[in-house]
Write a structure and sequence with these properties.
Layout lengths: L1 E8 L4 H17 L4 E6 L5 E2 L2 E2 L2 E9 L2 H9 L1 H9 L5
Antiparallel strand pairs: 1-5, 2-5, 3-4
Helix pairs in contact: 1-3
């Protein structure tokens, strides 16, 4: 199993980020070929010292490293990557 972990910093407008992420980005990412599971952090991301500047952590699970590479290179993977500029 291979996984891709994406860490999103706290955005200037968290409500707009969350709305776009839920309505647009998650559906794009879930269409990436080879994705077996898609997990998101919930609530504020904290560390040993307390609050952090991390808003969200997304983890995509693939069957293998080859599946991950192929998925990211696919048109669906490229569409999800291109969408980052719209909210992140």
């Amino acid at each position: 199993m291979a996984k891709l972990v994406v860490i999103y910093r706290t955005p200037k407008n968290a409500a707009a980020f969350d709305a776009h992420y839920a309505a647009v980005h998650i559906p794009l990412a879930q269409k990436i070929p080879g994705v077996k599971r898609y997990d998101l952090s919930t609530g504020p991301v904290t560390g040993p010292e307390g609050a952090t500047n991390v808003h969200l952590v997304a983890t995509l699970y693939f069957g293998s490293l080859a599946d991950l590479k192929a998925g990211l290179a696919s048109p669906e993977g490229q569409a999800a990557a291109a969408d980052l500029a719209n909210f992140a």
